[in-house]
Amino acid sequence: DSGVTQTPKHLITATGQRVTLRCSPRSGDLSVYWYQQSLDQGLQFLIQYYNGEERAKGNILERFSAQQFPDLHSELNLSSLELGDSALYFCASSVGDRTFNEQFFGPGTRLTVL
Amino acid sequence: TQLLEQSPQFLSIQEGENLTVYCNSSSVFSSLQWYRQEPGEGPVLLVTVVTGGEVKKLKRLTFQFGDARKDSSLHITAAQPGDTGLYLCAVTTGNQFYFGTGTSLTVIP
Predict the structure, then answer these.
(1) If you ran DSSP here, which 8-state letter would residue A73 be given?
(2) Which residues from A are below 8 Å from B31, CB to CB?
(3) How far apart are the first and last CA of chain A?
(4) How many C-beta atoms lie closer than 10 Å to residue A36's C-beta?
(5) What's the CA gap between B88 and B63, in Å, rounded?
(6) Which helix (H) or strand (E) holds B31?
């Protein structure tokens, strides 16, 4: 158990819909990272937040957005969903704001878009 | 084009055998990390290498960072079924974090 929690574990929805994925970091960690893992693209970095502020942005689509709240939990919002958005979405956390720091990954949310 | 290419993509071996997996790039990195991901779980950090030519050992796992800091290898001695998983290398460049294409290892009892 990494100490990072993600909900829900599974999510099935239809094209065009909007979903919200939730992540609670390890106690004391200020950074939260979001990743997408699919068979064809592998594990891709989406975005990083540090203490409520966006710190780095990777291959995140405009239809996707994220935020980190004052209690440090984070949400990833996916809208206008397409079949290709079906993937595993991981959240990770670390103590510092540098992406090099040791990241602890949650168990992931499996999103299926039908 | 992937920043980090890993080989082989798939590897299936018998328990007790030795194996080596590779992570290659045309770019130079200040450091490189190796993760293992088991089915249904998130990746777990195994090691970070920071110096060209550096060798780190973690029980039966030996990690090496290339002299030019463009590549790395992971050698497993006497593989066990518990070593089964997806092995990923990863680097930070600028403020971006990249994972390699991964090597899926299956160790057959």
Answers:
(1) -
(2) 100
(3) 31
(4) 23
(5) 12
(6) none
CA-to-CA distance for A19 and A6, rounded, in angstroms? 14
Q: What is the pLDDT of residues B66-93, one digit of tens each?
A: 999 999 999 999 999 999 999 999 998 8
Asked whether residue A99 carries a pLDDT value surpassing 90, the answer given is: no
Query: Given an 8 Å threshold on Cβ–Cβ distance, is B95 in contact with A33?
Result: no
List Cα–Cα distances, B47 to B11, B64, B67, in angstroms: 21, 10, 17
Contact B92 A99 (CB under 8 A): yes
Main-chain dihedrals φ then ψ at residue B68, nearest 5 degrees: -85, 0
CB contact under 8 A, A58 and B40: no
Contact A54, A114 (CB under 8 A): no
Rounded Cα–Cα distance for residues A46 and B97 (Å): 9
Under 8 Å between Cβ of B61 and B73: no
Residue B3 pairs in a beta bridge with none
Cα torsion B106, A89, A94, B62 to 10°: value is 10
Rounded to an integer, what distance in angstroms lies between the CA atom of residue A46 and that of residue A59?
5
pLDDT of res. B1: 63
3-class DSSP state of A76: strand
Going from the C-alpha of B76 to that of each of A6, A9, B4, B28, B56, the distances in angstroms are 32, 32, 20, 25, 12
